Amino acid sequence: MADLRELYQETILDHSKKPRNFHEIAEADASAVGHNPLCGDRVTVYVRLRDDTIADIAFVGQGCAISKASASLMTDAVKGKSRVQAHQLFQLFHRMVTGKPGDPVNTAGLGKLAVLSGVSEFPVRVKCASLAWHTLEAALESKKEIVSLE
Ligand code: ZN
Questions:
Q1: Cystine design at 114: which of 2, 75, 110, 142 (Cβ 3.0–4.6 Å)?
Q2: Ligand 1: distance of its center to the CA of 27 in Å?
């Protein structure tokens, strides 16, 4: 278990230092801005849709390592997925980070996102980890206002 935790930490560090899909999309079909005032995390998510599929996704922003790593992992995880699949993944993810520490993690369903399972031990970090996901949902629902996790 210690090895797994170490591996998870390394992956989080890697994604926070070298976030994937970290750029704007000029011709985005949808975008939204998310803000987590508790920590100061800010993220803008851009989405290109083809029919009902997330053909491309990217983000920009600044914040703590967890928020950045989570946004990076989120973009990797939902690219090529349908809106419904992305929503289901968010539900799985949300259940994981708001679960009790030690709860079984659905690694088959979550894939790489499971590296953030340790967040459930730190309730104050849950908003950091879920900010990008809430922002994605807002973009897909074409909400124009800023998402603020108060
Ligand atoms: Zn944060």
A1: 110
A2: 28
* Alpha carbons 19 and 66: distance in angstroms, whole number: 11
CA of 91 to the centre of ligand 1 (A): 20
Which runs of consecutive H residues, i.e. helices, occur in the chain?
Answer: 2-17, 65-78, 83-97, 107-110, 126-140
Cα separations in angstroms, 71 against 35, 64, 100, 102, 107: 13, 11, 22, 24, 18
| Report field, pTM of the whole predicted structure over 0.85 | yes
The rounded Å distance from CA 50 to ligand 1 centre is 31
The alpha carbon of 64 and the centre of ligand 1 are apart by a number of angstroms equal to 4
Tell me: the pLDDT tens digits for 44-69? 999 999 999 999 999 999 999 999 99
Domains and CATH numbers, the chain: 2-148 (3.90.1010.10)
For 100, phi then psi, to 5°, come to: -85, 140
